[in-house]
Write a structure and sequence with these properties.
Layout (H helix, E strand, L loop, with lengths): L7 E5 L5 H10 L5 E5 L11 H16 L5 E4 L2 H14 L3 E3 L2 H11 L4 E5 L1 H6 L1 H9 L5 E5 L3 H6 L7 H17 L3 E5 L7 H8 L4 E4 H16 L11 E5 L3 H12 L6 E3 L2 H5 L10
Helix pairs in contact: 1-10, 2-3, 4-6, 4-10, 8-9
Bound molecules: D-glutamic acid.
């Protein structure tokens, strides 16, 4: 059987993509993973699509240094804003989180589909397009939840009354829609799956964009005969554009295991990796 022992590159605006790493490690425990969390510039979801695209291209270029066999855009916001640009320039196959999540939601229900995501993801229309393309006639409601990424990056969880209060406000219209499936369209949100599930009720199946992406990675590696030769014991090497100690402490909650190897990389270094277009005067 053929194999490919190069690492998988994974990036997110911050810690959220570690939920994808957690699912990847479960499904593909033999794979080496190189992760970049752009914590100095998080959140991406409140920025313009042009700025998000620039950041995402820099993140992808950084991971290109590690000769990845596959690149995972473990950020719905970056996937929504930049997947075409990243795919056009990446040295390897690219997996995004939006398409697999939309497909999983449509497969889970014949009824209405809800999406919770960042402001930029909702504004981009990426989920609405992906769901409408294969689910013509479905009722779709995408709701922006801009406070959730800072709440999760802050390490707050479902027992926190602030979290419940914010979720009650964001989920009101989705509760009225009674969707058969609802996409957690931000890789930070699986950490709030408990309280979100409680508010939506058992008739709504929650689709984690992290799990959907991890399953897509396994499928692609298998189809191309590119799994690592070893079946377990894969490594995780993390990079952050901000404080590595804080990243390691909070990241352990996200990834479900201690992060022993976190290195700093400056945003100035990332900026130098992608040629900027000259500013028109
Ligand atoms: N985890 C990112 C996502 O999936 C969060 C985006 C942000 O930084 O706002 O969209």
């Amino acid at each position: 059987m053929s194999s490919d022992n190069r690492p998988i590159g994974v990036f997110d605006s911050g810690l959220g993509g570690l939920t994808v790493v957690k699912d990847l490690a479960k499904i593909l425990p033999g794979e080496d993973i190189v992760y970049l969390g752009d914590s100095a510039r998080v959140p991406y979801g409140i920025k313009s699509l042009a700025t998000i695209r620039r950041f995402a291209m820099e993140d992808a270029a950084f991971l290109g240094r590690f000769d990845p066999k596959l690149l995972v855009v473990a950020c719905n916001t970056a996937s929504a804003a930049a997947i075409d640009a990243i795919t056009a320039t990446a040295p390897c196959d690219v997996v995004d989180v939006v398409r697999p999540s939309a497909a999983a939601a449509l497969a889970a229900t014949d009824g209405p589909v809800g999406v919770v995501a960042t402001e930029a993801t909702v504004r981009s229309g990426a989920y609405q397009r992906a769901l409408a393309a294969d689910g013509a006639g479905r009722e779709i409601l995408a709701v922006a939840c801009p406070l959730l990424v800072p709440i999760v990056e802050e390490g707050r969880d479902g027992d926190d009354p602030i979290v419940t209060h914010v979720l009650c406000d964001y989920l009101r219209n989705l509760q009225r829609l009674r969707p058969g499936a609802m996409v957690l369209g931000c890789t930070h949100y699986p950490l709030l799956a408990g309280p979100i599930g409680k508010l939506m009720g058992p008739a709504t199946q929650l689709i984690s964009s992290a799990t959907a992406a991890a399953l897509d990675v396994a499928h692609r590696l298998d189809a191309a005969g590119m799994r690592h030769a070893r079946v377990e014991g894969g490594s995780l090497r993390c990079h952050t554009t901000d404080n590595p100690q804080r990243f390691a402490e909070l990241g352990a909650t996200f990834g479900g295991r201690p992060l022993d190897h976190v290195e700093y990389v400056g945003t100035d270094e990332l900026e130098g990796l992608v040629a900027r277009r000259p500013v028109k005067s």
